Amino acid sequence: MSLKQSALIALAVSLASISAWELYWRGQGYWPTLNDDKDLWAVHRARVEEATEKDFVIVGSSRAYFDIQVGAFEAATGRKPIQLSATGSSPLPAFHDIVRNTDFRGTVIMGVTPPLFFSTTFPMAPPWERIQGKVDHYQERTYAQRLNYPLSAFLQQNLVFMSGDEEEWADDIDLKSLLGRIRLGNRTGAPQMPPFYFFGEVSADRNMRMTPQTVTDTALANSVARVWAFFGKGAPPPDKDATMAFFLSDLEAFRARGGSLVLVRCPSNGGFREAEKHVTPRTDFWDDLVAQAQVPAYHFEDYESLKGLTCPEESHLSGPDADYFTQELVRLMQADGAIPNR
Amino acid sequence: MLFNSLIFIVFLAVVLALYYAPLLNWKGKKGMLLLASYVFYGLWNPPLVLLLWFSTVVDWVAGKKLAVEENPHRRKGWLVLSMVVNLGFLSFFKYGDFFLKNFTWLVNQIGWDFQPAPLDIILPMGISFYTFQTMSYTIDMYLKRTERARTFLDFALYVTFFPQLVAGPIVRAGDLITQFYEEKKATANQFIWGLFLLTIGLFQKVVLADTLLADAADTVFGAGKLLHPVDAWTGTLAFSGQIFFDFAGYSTCAIGVALMLGIFLPDNFRYPYASLGFSDLWKRWHITLSSWLRDYLYIPLGGNRHGILRMYVALMVTMLLGGLWHGAAWTFIVWGGLHGSYLILERLQRRYLPFKITARNGLFLAFTTFSCVNITWVFFRAREFSTAWDMITSMLWLRTGGEKTLELATIVQVLVVVTAMFLCHWVMRDRSMKEVAAKTSPWVLGLAWGVMLFLIFLSQGSGEQFIYFQF
């Protein structure tokens, strides 16, 4: 046995195959992207511990994530916000974590996507579990995990094949995702989710921006819209009483220590907006939330400058529109005194 | 720190560089390994390093006293001190909540309305492994089976040696401490073989356990409803493969990393799913634990020296406690009880229905053993008895109307991997990997090694913790 020879062959085979794999996927139009994962969330959650009363924290679902652009917000306010929104999630667990586990007394901007905000307080339900998993990871992460993350992030930002995102996109290229695409009929008879393709890219400062392809490729945008329709069909009815009570309890504690909260209803269009009107009518949900919370609140339909914005896939703004939305939102909030002028 | 993490690659590179650089003498290298081991452990939860230190100091002192003390009562006293400290830690950290919960249930049954707050004790990673390892030293010292460690540094490194600290193999003092007395340096072949073992271990963990099997097992055991027999069997087979690849993967990594330092660790697995019966299984599965239980529990309980009935009792007690060692839950005790029952039934069969094992019936016997082992895994994996009962009744086709929860592609994937695993164990059961590698062309070995590396990169892995860390 010549182990040295075997080791050299193994090195050559692995380097050649990994390089070919990387080049192949780059040739298919992929580019290296950072994963939107719990480790990245935890890095930014840690910033809340040091934040002052002049700082801003954004919580919410993917709309607050895509539509409030970190750079545009910083340019308008002079302070870089801490973006803690998470896709497909209720904002309540993250707000609860900030209220109960930190001394933060600055401004929390809470994105309200009514079907998610009012969805549930059940810990195992996806809108709750997705963000609670990130909160738990922050509380429990080890020093080894903290040290590991910069290495992992470096590779993600430089190698296409490091694309195993937590979202499990239909176009991920890790082994599990590739095998998951093999379908042999529908044995379980469960409704089949339409393919959910990657349509937003996150940066190290946790700014989420819609990819330009989603704006220009109607087929891609429509495929994402079909995913929203799929989720909408399977969603249980909202639990307004439990979610409202949970939120108001945390809000009371947050205000008592001097914190400020702003509610923001980001744009949605088309079939998604119609479904929202049916499931969570504005008067019963948003208006009642604002009335009970008694905090500054901004609904995109109330402002001429915001109501005309179009979401390519019915739920999120394109990058340039998100920049505009952010600037306009900040201008409105500053004009109302909801947040200080820079 | 996990073997399947990027930070471990950096850590290992630094340790190897310091180990092989001409900067330190052997004592300095051992000191460096000890410090690295504390860093390895402390990066998980720094305060819990204190437990390691305490356990190390107590057993070092006990060992030192046992080496010179001749008075039997005092000798027993030092042994008891070590046992109380180690088993006390284990009882408090691992079984505190379990004991409290059962105590509460018991007193509630007799009418006392006692509702204590849960203790919520953090379980120190690897506590079951290192306490058993240190206890073996003190017990062996008491029984005069081993020499006292020459220096505190040697002993502390024995307790803490990072490759096997958190999930074994559980190494006896005589097998490891003595290796620290003389300067160790891996030969080029040993180093490369260690690297190969590290690759095999990571492949088992990252590709086979986490990527190909874990989801099916999690889906089935987390379904919370009665399942179709095919789904129940697929989930159980998936877990059967997952736990083997996960744990054997860790052991293989540990053995490989140690070998890269020139240190030999014992085998922990020898193709257990091709076992011909349950005695054979326990000589092949988690070998270092089963030999520990045999030497420090089964034999002291009488072993086979006091008649058949006493032997069966010793066997059952050993397996029940072995089950409890794995986790603080009644499901683990049932798992141990099932294995105890299998061992007793096997002995009865040998006594009253003996038969000769041939090549033909051997495969059938291995398959039967594997099938019976799968039944026990249901109790090991299920969090509640209701889940286990639903699974077992589904698997035995005793209830109908179970739901299908796995897609056909997943079932095919699991069956292909598990069948390949079973056949591989059968082919390899009387061979060693080194022996097979020696007969393989360097080109084929290199190609297989390269493909494994490629698949590890392709799987990426999300740094999933090894299952046995929780034990």
Model description:
The complex is a heterodimer of chains A (342) and B (471). Chain A is α/β, with parallel strands linked by helices and 342 residues long. Chain A has a domain at 40-118 and 196-336: 3-Layer(aba) Sandwich (Rossmann fold). Helices cover 53% and strands 8% of the residues of chain A. Chain A has helices at 3-27, 38-48, 62-67, 70-77, 92-101, 114-117, 126-140, 143-158, 175-180, 212-216, 218-234, 240-256, 270-279, 286-293, 304-307, 319-336, and strands at 56-59, 82-83, 107-111, 200-202, 208-210, 260-265, 297-299. Chain A is globular and about 75 Å long. With 471 residues, chain B is mainly alpha-helical. In chain B, 69% of the residues lie in helices and 0% in strands. Chain B contains 18 helices and no strands. In chain B, helix 3 packs across helix 6. Chain B starts with 5 loop residues before the first helix and ends in a 12-residue tail after the last helix. In chain B, 47% of the residues are buried. Chains A and B meet through helix 1, helix 8 and helix 9 of A and helix 1, helix 8, helix 16, helix 17 and helix 18 of B.
Descriptive tags:
heterodimer, A: 342 residues, Rossmann fold, two-stranded antiparallel ribbon, 7 strands, B: 471 residues, 18 helices, MBOAT family protein (chain B)
Query: How large is the count of helical segments of chain B?
Result: 18
The gross shape of chain B turns out to be globular
For the termini of chain B, the CA-CA separation is 16 Å
| pLDDT < 50 runs, ≥5 residues of chain B | none
CATH class of the domain at 40-118 and 196-336 in chain A reads Alpha Beta
What is the mean pLDDT of chain A? 93
Order of helices and strands of chain A: HHEHHEHEHHHHEEHHHEHHEHH
Helix content of chain A: 40-55%
Strand content of chain B: under 5%
- Write down how many β-strands of chain B occur, each being a DSSP E stretch of 2 or more residues: 0
User: What does the oligomeric state look like here?
Assistant: heterodimer
How many domain units of chain B? Answer: 2
Number of helices of chain A: 16
Largest sheet of chain B: none
How do the strands line up in the largest sheet of chain A?
A: 2-1-3-6-7
Low-confidence spans of chain A: none
Approximate shape of chain A:
globular
- Please report which band the strand proportion of chain A falls in: under 5%, 5-15%, 15-25%, 25-35%, 35-45% or over 45%: 5-15%
Protein name (chain A): SGNH/GDSL hydrolase family protein
Keywords (chain B): Acyltransferase, Cell membrane, Membrane, Transferase, Transmembrane, Transmembrane helix
Organism (chain B): Robiginitalea marina
Family (chain B): Belongs to the membrane-bound acyltransferase family.
